[in-house]
Protein 1
Amino acid sequence: TIPSMPVGPAAGISLYKILSVVLCPHDTRSSTGDTSDRTENLSSSDSCPPHLSDRMFSIIAREKAHLLWSTRQRFVVDPYVMDSLSHLTYYLRDMDCPWEVPIGMIIPRDPHFFSRGDASHVGGGAYCPTLRFWFDIAWSPTTVAGILMTCQSAPGAVHINALEFIVVILQLAAIRVRIDTLSHSGEVAMFPGGLPNIPVWLGETDNTVSKSWENRATARTSQGQGLVSIYAELLRTSRIHTLCQHLPGDLNVVADDISRNDFSLASAARCTKLFRTHPSLASWDFFLPSLELLQLLTSRLYSRHMRVPCVLPTVLGRFVPAGCITFGSATL
């Protein structure tokens, strides 16, 4: 291992929440609110010189930081930020959590397997050829209603970016379950040279926001932060090196068809319809996320304030053997 000073993704989401409050101490909205609208308004101001329009928000943020450190003023910190501070303090003082990163997580390596996912207004899904699995998930009427809301700040509103990232989270959960439960014969079939100590997973998505959230393990919106905290905890407790790349939508055909299937059909009819177009899926296992994981995702999707750290369920899900098409359907 090689010593590393920056905190890991699990603590990074707490640190980002604190920074959003520190840089905007006078904002009357939520401390985790999206700043993109404010930046756009500042950039489009007629009084702003063109050469400063792209830098305006960073200049103001720097001035606010200077105000914080150069004066003795006191700022009110809400209980949610205090929770984040307590979590960071515990993380930094915990002698069982050394500041080190395995070299396999640092050096650039080619991926050992890839998966592709997608989300639509009716559901989501993904597949992984090397690990021979696929899954789909239907959105509940509540989630669909949230997608159709025009005001994204309204209670119950759901952004498609959040659903795209939920598919990314489920892919990592499925990969972790697959590797943890892989039999000897399965390991030989999927990894003839042996299962790597730290396998490299390449996740491909046609959603640029999901790619950003995965690469940075941070998000500006409170909805995104809640979901990133789940992903960060999965990363912290797994020995999997992750990569995420953008895939043009016209190349994401299989995942696109999975996510846009007719979820009103029973699992048998839904699979039969999908297998006609993509017969290879019929020979792969189906990942069914646990009810506890779905409940955690739902909670973080709709809660504007959440306690940290995120606590993962003991069981993330299970695999339904290939050939079984009466497994029901996961709904979020």
Note: The beta strands are 2-3, 100-101, 113-119, 123-128, 133-138, 200-205, 241-246, 285-289, 317-320, 330-331.
Protein 2
Amino acid sequence: TMHSIDAASRITVRANFWGFLEALKVSDIVTVARVTTGALDGQKMPYPSSAAPGTVVDVNLLGGTESSITVATDYADALTQLINQDVQVVAVMDTDVEAPKALKVHCDNAALAGKERNGYAGATASQTLANLFDNYIAKVNSRHVAIAGQQITITDPLTGVAKDLDPPWLGVLGAAAQCGRNVGIPLTYKRLGILGTKQDSGWVIGTSDDEVIEKSIFAITKDVIGFKFLRSVTSYATDANVVFSEISANESMNYSIRNLRDQLIVKIGDPATISPERFKSVVIATLRIQKEDGFIKDFKEESVKITQTGDKYRVDYDVAPVLPLNFVTVYAPAYV
């Protein structure tokens, strides 16, 4: 027997969790399986739950065997799993300095594997600027890694209550913002949807901004409109190299190399009879496109050099990455 169903009686059925599991099944890192009925009895899960939103608690993933971690080795082992993945930005979540140190080594190794990338990390909360520099920046000192020192205050999406997150979460915010805009666009002065920041009492937003930048700390500042990234600096502190000390300039450089390699790697498997001049023409054409698209500022065509040794072609070129606009000076002499 057929019955018509009026619009008011209809319901929408979604399989969000099924979709989540299906998306994870393609991962090379995790194995997906449903837990048996009742396996989570006694634990309050987010939604649906009989518990009020205010009593929602974090629940660890099931199935792991590690009861504790050794930051230096375990982070290094975990990051190694990403070496050959198509990843451009990585964030680590432990406040131990060994985490960003492992991230630095990982980015170096990823570049050797042809997968250039950069990353973000966070220090222990409420560190003085001097301690942040001595215990984190100076010990990592990498063009690939930015290190945050502030807590951020957000609205908890489950409870609607303000919640403080430790500095690694500011790193996650930076990573997400970088992934959300084009190559070579600095994070400097980009606005943030947060409620506030917390830092050591001697770190005064606005007053301490210059010192924060000088100490290569990735940070947030505030003006009359609201919160914004202060300067997208890396932890590179060896000298004033603007390419290595600016996230966006370093990204521009990384992209140029990675993109050029991707264009040339399709030649692998061809007979090694391609003339260096023909190979050079492909390189120049690719770099011209990078320049036209704004991913690099310029390159020197005369610097492009192709060297063939047996079954290997080596490419050398000089590139000017896109630099951020950090300063504007207005000079207006008076006249009568």
Note: DSSP finds nine helices and twelve strands in the chain.
Protein 3
Amino acid sequence: KQAWRRYFSVFGHNYRVWRETRRLLKKTGPVDCILLPAVRIHHLMAWRLLCNAGLGKKFKRVIPFLLTSEAIYNESYTVFHFRKTSQLMKLVLSGFKKQVATGGVVLAGDSHITCKEYETLSGVPFRVFPSPGVGLQAANPINSDIEHREQNEVPHFVMLGVSFIDKGIDVLQKAILKLLKEDPLLPAKFVIQWATPTSGYDGNLVPISNELRNAPQVHLIEQVLDDAAYTKYMQRADFIVLAYRRKVYFNRLSGVAVEGACAGIPMIVTENTWLEWAVKEFGAGVTVRDGEADDLADKILLCIKETKRLRNEAMERKQVAREVNSSAQYLKCVWD
């Protein structure tokens, strides 16, 4: 019964998308391109009908972005398959094949991994788009000038954003406590935003340790940051810690990673994820094994030892990151 309700909601939502889009296009008249920022099966069926009736007449091109994954991976994230429920998505996407071939439809994503998944599912090519928003943000207010970081007496490791368990904040806490137990005078500064209670996968709260709270090397931010405060902390960052859990971030883009690369800040990222690919393609930094606090502690020590080298590598690749994630590159993807 619940499954039928879900399918009914899918068809109902598609009908509303179809109806309201037709009304809008009657008001606007013909347009060159329509961008659909985050579509799901709840929208795509409507756009199949709209493209069949209006592509080349009411609009010249439509670009649906599929950002969520349908794939199910094995434990090592080397092989994936799809649930039976993905057959409807497969059917709808494959229906765009001729329109994709002529360039009227561009099926898009922001992660090359997710795009590969959908290509495997549908047999239709996808186009990977850059992230110009975070690229521009990093290029303008943060800029992470090398002078800001050279003022640091010790390397600054920064982790900002919502303190979800998915982002490995508990792993970072364990790694820091291990390092401080071994060396109470550890030459490092950790800036951690922990503004909301964090629940583990078992449903229990992950408390902030008193040892972490009282450590002189740790600066805890237990509040939401405005843009000015966020920029201030990022300007002083020698390293951004992105020890995100692979099961959530294997194929997902990270705006913070793009921002860090565009600002010339090296990163600590989880291996065998989109994050590692980004570091290799247009950033700099080191990788850490998924969910392993001991390995993260070792990589923090490596970063302390190799701060100057990693900083220089990130600064050298900053322009590459900005070009890859530029508005010009985005527009090229839209119109080519």
Note: The longest strand covers residues 31-36.
Protein 4
Amino acid sequence: VFYRAERYGEARTQALLVRSMATSTEIHDNAEVLLRKIEGARLNWWQLKLSVGYLYDSNATLGPKQEDAFYSYLDYSGAAEEEDQALVLQGAFRHTVVKSSGWSWMTFGRINQIDYARANSSDYLNLTLASGPRYARRSADFSLPVVMQGTRYGESGELTIFRYGLSPKVVHHLSEHWQIQGTLNLQRKNDNDVTESSSRILIVSPAIGFKESRFAVSVGGQVGRESAEEDLYSYNLASIKSTVSRKWLKGLHTSIWGGFFWRDYDEQEPGYDEKRQDRTDRIGFSTLIDLAGPQCQLDLTLNYLENHSNIPSHRFDQNQFYATVRVNF
């Protein structure tokens, strides 16, 4: 009824509710079809998400373990691992304007803030803005956004990092359920820390994914390089990661992910006769529970990472637990 009356906001809300409460695959698939029709019919539409919650962090400073904190001639004793708790605030919006058949202009913005109780030097504020054209057809999708990102660390902004560049992305639908995609990140990064350094970033990210009404899996990776003005901060990078998601009845969604990330630096670490080589292992699990339909959800997330390095002072691990309430508009 709302769709026929061109009241697309109300129609989308009802379709999302039906999809989350579907008692059969047929009902769920019908709701998905209606959602696609609604998105195609709306010429100018907004999406907004707001989250607030709690974070427990076993190593807020990402500092080395106590036994590794004194292995370098540098003084790492003040940066040893520190357990803490934090307030988490997040917000995101997406705006789409349909220009003509297949063409649209998309704008995306996000803010993420973490305010620690004690580890003030690890306070985190990130702002991201991306905007650009998108062309979509039945089996292909291409976008070319300009991306800007600012990140501030510390209560008083002891370190600020600014990135900007292009991030073209191509998606090809192999079939109803399978797709492949590739993303290219071309960025410039400027730091305002004591080095006041800048660097160039080039990353290629291929991926393949399978998705049906209640199950999705993806496998992807990255290959790239960050070239800084000083070789000490320049490195080659590579990664492989995978995510598996499952939607359950009565508004329960679960995901599990994991990956390996490698970084090989160009220059010897000060105080050592070898170049730094790191491997970071990550694994996570999340549960998303509908509290009042899909408009209000509880997100419970566990993250674990461990950084392996041939330089002892760069070895650390971290456990994080998030509990946030998300409101979708």
Note: The first strand starts at residue 44 and ends at 57.
